[in-house]
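User: Assemble these into one structure.

Assistant: Restating your components, then the assembled model:
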Amino acid sequence: MTKYEFVANQLADRINNNEFKHTKKIPTEDQLMQEYNVSKNTIRNAIKILTKLGLLYPVQGSGMFIREIKKYDTIFLSGTRGITKDHPGTHIENKCLHIEVIEADEKIAQFMLCEQGTPIYYIERLRIVDEVPYAVEYTYYNKNIIHYLNKEIVESSIYQYIKEDLKLTFGFADKYISARKLTERESELLKLQKDDPAIIIEDNVYLANGTLFNSSQITYNYQLAHFFMTAE
Amino acid sequence: MTKYEFVANQLADRINNNEFKHTKKIPTEDQLMQEYNVSKNTIRNAIKILTKLGLLYPVQGSGMFIREIKKYDTIFLSGTRGITKDHPGTHIENKCLHIEVIEADEKIAQFMLCEQGTPIYYIERLRIVDEVPYAVEYTYYNKNIIHYLNKEIVESSIYQYIKEDLKLTFGFADKYISARKLTERESELLKLQKDDPAIIIEDNVYLANGTLFNSSQITYNYQLAHFFMTAE
DNA sequence: TAGTGGTCTAGACCACTTT
DNA sequence: AAGTGGTCTAGACCACTAG
């Protein structure tokens, strides 16, 4: 862990412990430099992390103020993490509906940014939060990068498997957000009506070296799923 | 304009002009430091801007690679700008459906983060892109901050008015994204069917000093509106 | 092993807010 | 005028990639 990550974690803890509830501000940059014995740049890097998470906002000439945002039960969009981290204390089940290896045709090759004929895992999952169907997920993984997947991995955490077992590091993700009507099959799986609204997130996830390894289309239950982000 | 903003603009232009199409990389940090005669930090700040816009991704030890993303006809979510900037070359019309000044009741005071009784502009607009109804927008402005609004301003660009005439600077924005069914009135305005899907963005915009001045709920035409963002 | 991005420091000065 | 965040510099060293 870098110094600025350490400082960011410390500050996040201190904010969550309400240490600054009187002032609604964190200490000044100079004070933090002294407290943690680091340079200004390191403090600023730490603070940038917290700002992106929506915990703070800076006011030039005045201080770094703590935010009070109501993000109850929402999924945080500005991260490569999934539902899991945003629903602490809930029971999440991933039901594997379908898993197969296919060869990329022209269309798949195009959005997977790979050659035609590349082996691809195609997976369908139903994600269930606290016994209620939450989302239907259609995912393509490049098998040249994720060499092996099975039902067990797919039903637990694929991300953890990729990170901890395969030792791959995530870089960034593109997200396309839209809405459409549910298909009949989706409505049955989500226990909603056909033609009910669905919020769709297409998620293209890249490794740190810039290669795309995963493209998902996730169909969320519109009565349950709400998303949150903060922009500058 | 700061030096790093200048460098970021220059680089964005050079990328758009395909200057780096052979290498698919921009010059190294050291090269850019020399070219623009600035320090490493300045280059890094510039590059961070381009990374957030999704134009670049960094690979440690290798270079800064140019991205090729298909964001045709989408609205970029990671910004406080609206539709306007994302639809160059299109004709945008804002039809004012309703404008009135009200006093904040308990509920409004809560989400506008103001005292009860604060004067508030409540505005309804229909946004039309290239003659097609695009979104229905319900907006609250704190009248203690935005002292005056009228139909003309509301039908042109409110943001430009706030920025250039009132000389206020935007800070950050929270966005909540969800889906629901259209109301009957919305379906008529958007020329869709009642109970058709709608993608909803609730947008809370803050000034640089951290005060909330604007809360909108925007109901987008699901057949036209698609959103894009990039996350780390 | 050389090239390239990432972290970190120390210090100067500027822009804005608050008193 | 004093306090506080924002920009900028010069330089050292680390982490990772690629030939």
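The longest strand of chain B covers residues 92-103.
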